[in-house]
Amino acid sequence: MNCQCADVVTPGLIDLFEARQRLVEAATPLHAVESVTLQQAAGRVLAKPVVAPLDMPGVDNSAMDGYALRLADYRAATDGEGLPVLQRVPAGAGVMLLPQGGCARIFTGAPVPLGADIVVPQERVTLDQSGHIHIDGELTIGANIRCQGEETRAGTPLLPEGKYLDAAAIALLASHGVDKVTVQRRIRVALLSTGDELIAPGTARSPGQVYDSNRAMLKVLLTQAQCDVVDLGVIADSPQPLHQAFEQAHAVADVVICTGGVSVGEEDHVRPVIEQRGGLIFHGVAIKPGKPFAFGYLGSELTSATPLIALPGNPVASLVGWQLLALPFIHTLQGRHLAALQTYPVTAGFARRGPQGRRELLRVTLDWSGETPVAHLAGGQGSHMLSAASQADGYLLIEPATAVVEGNTYRYYPINQFAA
Ligand code: AMP
Ligand code: MG
Question: Which atom of ligand 1 is nearest to 215's Cα?
Answer without folding.
Answer: 19
